[in-house]
Write a structure and sequence with these properties.
- By secondary structure, the protein is α/β, with parallel strands linked by helices.
- It has 2 domains: 3-40 and 72-208, Cobalamin-binding domain (Rossmann fold), CATH 3.40.50; 224-482, Aldolase class I (TIM Barrel, Alpha-Beta Barrel).
- The protein is 37% helix and 20% strand.
- The chain has helices at residues 16-26, 77-90, 104-115, 127-131, 133-137, 149-161, 242-250, 261-274, 291-304, 320-329, 343-348, 356-367, 388-400, 420-426, 429-438, 441-453, 460-468, 470-474; strands at residues 3-11, 30-38, 40-43, 51-52, 58-61, 66-72, 94-98, 122-125, 142-144, 171-174, 180-182, 204-208, 212-215, 225-228, 231-232, 257-258, 279-282, 309-313, 331-339, 374-381, 409-412.
- The strands form 3 sheets. Strands 3, 4, 5, 6, 14, 17, 18, 19, 20 and 21 form a 10-stranded mixed beta sheet that branches.
- α1 crosses α6 (149-161) and α13 (388-400) packs parallel to α16.
- The longest helix is centred in the N-terminal third of the chain and has 14 residues, at 77-90.
Length: 496
């Protein structure tokens, strides 16, 4: 039996540690999950008081305030020593880190810190090493490329047997002489073969400087809400999304896989019977993509699980009949990706051609379900290719969207490494320079406030008249008193 510690930097949504721990334990090994430190959401003008990961998320909250995701209090000796002591007590045979592109620097810091105390293999997994393997392999012993369930079990098996761990398919490894060994890729696994994630409280620890070491606690995305994915992959290839990059790296054929209904329900039965949960969060990229699967799944879900749930949809993947079926099964809220009101931006730069007429229809179909289903939408703003005409197009869309359709805030576009959108930006310096000259921060401030105004109670024609009045564009601060102070910070419909 091998002992594997899985360290997740910063609490938040990440199902991977629980999934990998479940795989290890099913295979007869031992595992622990350590959530180390917490991300903070802070006001934009306070961000300099914190450390910030690469690619911080900047967004405009529903009340008009500007926030920054992915800030954190700097590493310090107190919490570092708590992590070291906890791991020494556990005595792992290997240490794994779950790493995204934005936390590669932080993962390197923790790896170097722990290597001073543990002579065991360190393996990184997650989007970071999958998308930036050349960078990451210089910072650790092993990296997992793409899915890690079979990799982590084979690593534990080899450690248990005393075998070489540098030749595992699906990994890159640094040999003793410094050579990088690039092992063959692993084929995509059958999702019906994955284990039930490990949510055993005895296997969890959470460490930060303020509350110290706490065991028997779940990360803050799990408590009364149970996160689950019934599928992996996405039928779409939006240029700003990680799924498009995965499709480029591993092929689009068979990239979208859905779990067997019996397997999904088995996990949900376990969660309902063993955890104090009151709702389910389906984190599939597009939950509504397969009507035939839903038609079979939803009646059984209603009968066997019967808990309210939230999910994602896409303007072209639902219709009124499907939505009524979802509501009948317990859907309490749903989020639809909109991303831009400019068909030009969607088509030319997002690889997401969607007619605005359909977006409005799809939103109205959700609202027509009634007030017991909360409808939300996502919007990406501050896109480097936008012109003022594109901002006006988004404003006009927002006017046409039913007011009952809410938002948790507008996220600014982030250019992650090697994404199609990022390559588009890097290959268009003249267009970007022109955009930066013509579409100023002041102009964005004005349009963002107009967008938010459309979500409030003011009649549509009054808002349109404000948009036509030049005094507000000259002085956007005049709009502040007209904005709602209502915040929507939860897709499950909880307002703060």
């Amino acid at each position: 039996m091998a002992r594997v510690a899985l360290v997740k930097l910063f609490t938040g949504l990440n199902l991977a540690p629980a999934q990998l721990s479940g795989e290890l334990q099913r295979a007869g090994h031992d595992s622990r999950i350590v959530y180390f430190k917490d991300h903070k959401i802070v006001p934009f003008d306070e961000k300099d008081n914190y450390a910030i990961t690469d690619y911080p998320g900047i967004f405009l909250a529903a009340d008009g305030s500007k926030k920054v995701w992915n800030c954190y209090n700097p590493f310090n000796d107190k919490e570092n020593n708590l992590l070291i002591d906890y791991l020494k007590d556990y005595n792992p045979d290997a240490i794994g880190l779950s790493v995204i592109s934005g936390t590669i620097r932080e993962a390197s810091y923790i790896t170097n810190l722990l290597k001073q105390h543990f002579d065991v293999p360190f393996i990184w997994g997650g989007p970071g090493p999958t998308l930036e393997p050349d960078r990451c392999i210089e910072l650790t012993d092993l990296i997992c490329i793409n899915e890690g369930e079979e990799v982590i079990v084979e690593l534990a098996n080899r450690l248990d047997a005393g075998d070489d761990v540098t030749t595992i398919d699906g990994t890159w490894a640094r040999a003793a002489n410094g050579e990088v060994i690039k092992n063959p890729k692993r084929p995509l696994m059958k999702l019906d073969d994955i284990a039930i994630p490990d949510w055993n409280l005895d296997n969890y620890a959470h460490i930060n400087a303020f509350k110290g070491l706490r065991t028997g606690l779940y990360p803050n995305n799990l408590g009364q809400e149970y996160p689950i994915m019934t599928q992996r992959g996405c039928p779409f290839s939006c240029s700003f999304c990680i799924e498009s990059r995965y499709q480029e790296l591993f092929g689009k054929h068979d990239s979208l896989r859905r779990r067997n209904i019996d397997v999904v329900l088995e996990e949900l039965h376990w969660a309902k019977n063993n955890l104090d949960i009151v709702s389910i969060l389906f984190y599939d990229d597009v939950f509504t993509v397969n009507p035939r699967w839903l038609k079979e799944f939803l009646p059984r879900y209603k009968q066997e699980i019967g808990l309210p749930f939230w999910c994602y949809t896409y303007p072209t993947t639902h219709n009124p009949d499907m939505l009524r079926m979802l509501k009948d099964a317990g859907m309490m809220s749903v989020t639809m990706g909109v991303q831009s009101g400019s068909e030009r931006i969607l088509k030319e730069h997002f690889n997401r051609p969607t007619a605005m007429k359909r977006v409005v229809e799809a939103a109205q179909e959700i609202v027509d379900l009634g007030t017991d289903v909360k409808g939300f939408f996502d919007l990406i703003t501050k896109v480097p290719f936008e012109t003022e005409d594109d901002l006006k197009a988004t404003f006009n869309l927002m006017l046409d969207l039913p007011k009952e359709f809410k938002t948790v805030g507008f996220g600014e576009m982030t250019s992650f490494p090697d994404y199609g959108f990022t390559k588009d930006v890097e290959s268009s310096p003249e267009l970007i320079a022109q955009h930066n000259k013509e579409v100023t921060e002041e102009m964005y401030d004005y349009y963002h406030k107009l967008y938010l105004l459309t979500r409030g109670p003011m009649p549509k024609e009054e808002i349109r008249a404000i948009g036509d009045d030049p005094k507000y564009k000259t002085n956007p601060a005049l709009l502040d008193s007209l904005l709602s102070d209502e915040k929507y910070m939860s897709f499950t419909g909880i307002s703060f």
